[in-house]
Amino acid sequence: MLRTLREPRYAALSVLMLIVAAICVLAGTWQISRLSGKVTENDALRNNAHAATTAVGDVLPLVGKGTPSADSIQYRTVTATGTYQPAGQALVRQRTVDGDTGYLVLTPLRTSQGTLLVVRGFISGTAARSGSLPTVPAAPTGQVSVTARVQPAETRNDRATQLGGKQLEAINPRLQAVRLGTPVYAGYVELHAGQPGTAGLTAIPAPDLSNPAGGAIEPQHVAYIIQWYLFALLALAAPFVVARAETRSHRDDDREVDDVVIPDQQTPEQARAARLADRYGRVVR
């Protein structure tokens, strides 16, 4: 078998399988990194969700005064006191809650430190008449105190000027600060069920903390790691397996030929050729 492996075609196969194995090892190592990052992110989000309730100013800075990482603020529970500003209310379109596509009702809440973008709830797209936007229940008047769940700012263009009708594509506090002409917190919040402003709207459900970061679950990454390293081992073993199979096949051929009774008129070489020709259906001349 070792002699077979030294043949040029097997040398080329070995080099190819080494390259394949190296790629598989890199992919497995990348999955280890992905798993580590997923565990860290999930732990951070779970800790945020279970952290003590605090004032919104302790979690979110104002736009232009810092950009907190999503992992440090998402799902934190905060309180805020202020007055809803219905003139700045908008509908964030193409959002899905419990399989239903519709709108998030976004209403600014003016506080003593700045304006907080508040998702009061969800309204189904089926609630709208054909070709029109849904009718939104009015926000409470006067000063209110709310408890809500923090979400990080969305950074893409909200397309407010292109969509019209006070519709938005995204919740972008930086653009809202320009539009409202007031300091705005660098994130937004979703009201807990039963809070002032949720009446008549579907409450935003609490996050699923089994895998809050989303994407592949942690055991799935473990399976990917095992899979890629097994592929690497199979690639390294492939030249030996193929060479062993070929060597065994040649040995069996030799054994069959050696068992042949050589007629007096044939040399051993002729008998060997005749036996192989008979085995594979070829005529020897």
TrEMBL record:
PROSITE patterns: SURF1 (PS50895)
Family named by the database record: Belongs to the SURF1 family.
Major localization listed first in the record, in broad terms: membrane
Residue intervals passing through the bilayer: 12-32, 226-245
UniProt keyword terms in alphabetical order: Cell membrane, Membrane, Transmembrane, Transmembrane helix
InterPro entries (alphabetical): Surf1/Shy1, Surf1/Surf4
Protein name, UniProt field: SURF1-like protein
Cellular compartment(s): Cell membrane; Membrane
Organism: Jatrophihabitans cynanchi
CDD domains named among the record's database cross-references: SURF1
Lineage: Bacteria, Bacillati, Actinomycetota, Actinomycetes, Jatrophihabitantales
Membrane topology category: Multi-pass membrane protein
